[in-house]
Amino acid sequence: MSQSSSSHSAPTRTEAERLVAEAVDTGRLSRVAGERLGAGLVDERVREPVLEGAFESKRRGKGVRVSVSKNVFIPLTNLCRDRCGYCTFAKTPDDPAAKTWSLDEVADAARGARRAGCIEALFCLGDKPEKAYRSYRDWLAARGHSTTAEYLVEGCRVAFELGMLPHTNAGILSARQMEALRPWNASMGLMLETTSTRLRGKGHAHHVAPDKEPEIRLRMHREAGELKIPFTSGLLLGIGENVSERVDTLLAIRDVADAYGHIQEVIVQPFHAKPATPMHGAESLSDALVAGWVALARLAMGPEANVQAPPNLAPEVLELLLRSGLNDWGGVSPVTVDFINPEAPWPELAELRRRTEAAGQRLVERLPVYPEDLLHRKDFFDPQVHAAALRLADGEGWARSGVQVEAA
Q1: In 116-147, where does DSSP find H-type helix?
Q2: pLDDT of residue 7
Q3: 3-state SS assignment for residue 356
Q4: Domain residue spans in the chain?
Q5: What's the burial of 258, exposed, middle or buried (CB within 10 Å: 0-12/13-18/19+)?
Q6: Into which CATH architecture does domain 53-391 fall?
Q7: Is the pTM higher than 0.90?
Q8: CB 79 within 8 A of CB 49
Q9: What pLDDT, in 10s, does the model give residues 145-155?
Q10: Please, which residues have CB within 8 angstroms of residue 308's CB and are 6 or more apart in sequence?
């Protein structure tokens, strides 16, 4: 894992074109090429060939399709033991905004989402709050649970039985906990964010966040692979990491994908400073740089990978992102806000379709899993989840148009 600042010099345009062409033709981006191109992204003469090459790579592997998942966001609890320097989601029990959802609230959200035509139930929650807060441990115990992960199983079961397909992003889970969730989840995920252990140091973004230790996060990636769980990962841009660390993060995700074949998508998510956080004064990356890193993610992961950039975090430059090699917008909800970034509203799906198609691409709706896994990797799913997903899919594995979602 890279710990030091990047010392690689930016290439000339001619060199950049050569490095990009090699990556497109081989479907791989080497560490040295990634660091040199990454160092040059601030220069349009380097960035443009990177964007062009990434778009060509995407075209070869994915054609003109760009997918989106219509979801409901269920933040089961916003209590969290971590204190990341950029986060406004995590709360303490004495905060008036602290909330843990009841199973009845989960059921109500699932029913409303069904009526709105949603398929994915995105469970996102704080990491291991029971380790930090006695009052929350007591709350769990009163309901027969010792961990948040046990309660999460119940929440996912409720959503699944009401006709939704859950995708869980719950922070660090053990292999046993993921195995318990598997009968109710179509997919799971954990943003790797960064492989930089440097950012765990005092004054950095992950200093007071034990669950952001890179090796712990990579271990969960590997254990999900051993369990054959379709898994989402990603890179968080702009939290203090340098060029070498960004490239290292992408290559670490690629290594896990190569080993297990279960990484279903790679998200490239930009950090935006929020008030009342330790990093409130930090400067965000420019939209041009974000697009450049989406493009490098495509070149690093190859033409067949699914590369995602959230449209609500760069709403003014969707057309630029569409040039960067992404083939997925992620989850977009017509019924709930993005609880992680509540200041960033989702685009209207009709507007997202209009802008995607105006850029010469075609918007398609997907399930929480991609067609290649759903149709060709039956072993990646619990049988009841696989059967439920197939009922909601068309013959190509995309979400069936106008599907009536019914409770199982």
Answers
A1: 134-142
A2: 60
A3: helix
A4: 53-391
A5: exposed
A6: Alpha-Beta Barrel (3.20)
A7: yes
A8: no
A9: 999 999 999 99
A10: 234, 265, 266, 267, 268, 326, 327, 328, 329, 330
